[in-house]
């Protein structure tokens, strides 16, 4: 299986059904995790891109953070947060870029507007893209200077698709402190759907765990599912007691889940549930799956292409298994 590449001149016709299935959140034979997890009653909804009581921070504090806009010239409309993981390569929630056009997409990074030459989308998507990361490959000529890059989480390999490796993480590999960082607006304002709405870079301290979503989102066991990695501003026990900090929140597509002890990227926010009276956990994709590294390899091949192997714009051949 090869990575799915979107770019200016070329769209792969035979993958059209898979693309539409993913956008419309239907199941397909390509879906990962379904055989190992009971996700039949799990719905992974869109994030509303807002924050509650998060702290505004400077981009200089997180120079590897970026934001995605969908315009050839303007700095709006803002679409989602992205993270620089290699020179000219950014990652975000895959669902953020599924419906964008490459030639209209720009990455705002270190106050520079970078042109995007290709998207790399997951070749084996999960249900409603809850565990999927998308890549934006930018034109290396768009940026002059030293690239600020964040290292990826490498404490443990992903050994199964049912997240048993994640369940054991806190016990086997020591404690971790996390913050989520991304461009968000205040709650309430997020209901105003206008392109000129201002998004500010904010951060919030969070806890991560495999118990957060299945405990909180299942109506106390009335339904089954959501046994996937999530973060929240408090623990399950604190949520049940309505502790004040449980009303803090940060949920934006592509938001960076940052390990503050090891200074590495744990993953990016991909989905969440919304309820007006309560703040709920946010799901994220950990950047350590086999599919992630296959797609990263594809993104690097596109970035390094000198036009000899393929005609500019026709990048799919670079990412086939036999390339």
Overall number of structural domains: 2
pLDDT < 50 stretches: 6-31
Q: Write the CATH architecture name of the largest domain.
A: Beta Barrel
Give the helices and strands as they follow along the chain.
Answer: EHEEEEEHEEEEHHEEHEHEEEEH
Number of helices: 7
Mean pLDDT: 84
Q: Main beta sheet: strand number and arrangement?
A: 6 strands, antiparallel, barrel
Structural class assignment: alpha+beta
Q: What is the CATH superfamily of the largest domain?
A: Trypsin-like serine proteases
Signal peptide: 1-16
Keywords: Signal
Briefly say what this structure is:
Helices cover 14% and strands 29% of the residues.
What does this structure look like?
By secondary structure, the chain is an alpha+beta fold. The protein folds into two domains: 4-40 and 63-149 and 289-319, Thrombin, subunit H, CATH 2.40.10; 152-286, Thrombin, subunit H, CATH 2.40.10. 14% of the residues lie in helices and 29% in strands. The chain is built from seven helices and 17 strands. It has a six-stranded antiparallel β-barrel. Strands 11-12-13-17-16-15 form a six-stranded antiparallel barrel. β5 (78-86) and β6 (89-93) form a beta hairpin. InterPro entries: Peptidase_S1_PA (IPR009003), Peptidase_S1_PA_chymotrypsin (IPR043504). Keywords: Signal. Residues 1-16 form the signal peptide.
């Amino acid at each position: 299986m090869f990575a799915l590449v979107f770019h200016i001149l070329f769209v792969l016709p035979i993958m059209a059904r898979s693309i539409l299935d993913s956008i419309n959140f239907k199941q397909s034979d390509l879906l990962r995790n379904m055989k190992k997890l009971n996700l039949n009653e799990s719905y992974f909804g869109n994030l509303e891109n807002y924050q509650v009581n998060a702290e505004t921070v400077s981009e200089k504090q997180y120079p590897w953070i970026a934001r995605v806009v969908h315009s050839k010239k303007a700095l709006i409309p803002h679409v989602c947060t992205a993270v620089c993981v290699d020179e000219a390569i950014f990652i975000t929630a895959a669902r953020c870029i599924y419906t964008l056009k490459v030639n209209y997409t720009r990455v705002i990074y270190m106050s520079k507007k970078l042109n995007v030459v290709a998207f790399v989308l997951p070749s084996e998507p999960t249900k409603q893209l809850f565990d999927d990361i998308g890549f934006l490959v930018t034109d290396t000529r768009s940026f002059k200077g030293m690239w600020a890059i964040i290292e990826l989480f490498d404490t443990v390999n992903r050994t199964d698709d049912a997240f048993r490796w994640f369940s054991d993480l806190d016990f086997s590999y020591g404690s971790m402190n996390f913050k989520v960082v991304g461009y968000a607006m205040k709650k309430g304002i997020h209901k105003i759907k206008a392109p000129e709405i201002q998004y500010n870079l904010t951060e919030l301290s969070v806890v991560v765990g495999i118990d957060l979503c299945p405990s909180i989102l299942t109506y106390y066991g009335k339904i089954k599912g959501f046994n996937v990695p999530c973060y929240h501003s408090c623990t399950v026990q604190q949520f049940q007691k309505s502790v004040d900090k449980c009303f803090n929140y940060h949920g934006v597509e592509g938001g960076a889940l940052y390990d503050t002890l090891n200074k590495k990227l744990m993953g990016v926010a991909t989905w969440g549930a919304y309820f007006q009276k309560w703040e709920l956990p946010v799901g994220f994709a950990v950047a350590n799956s086999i599919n992630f590294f296959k797609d990263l390899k594809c993104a690097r091949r596109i970035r390094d292409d000198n036009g000899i192997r393929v005609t500019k714009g026709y990048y799919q051949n670079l990412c086939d298994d036999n390339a």
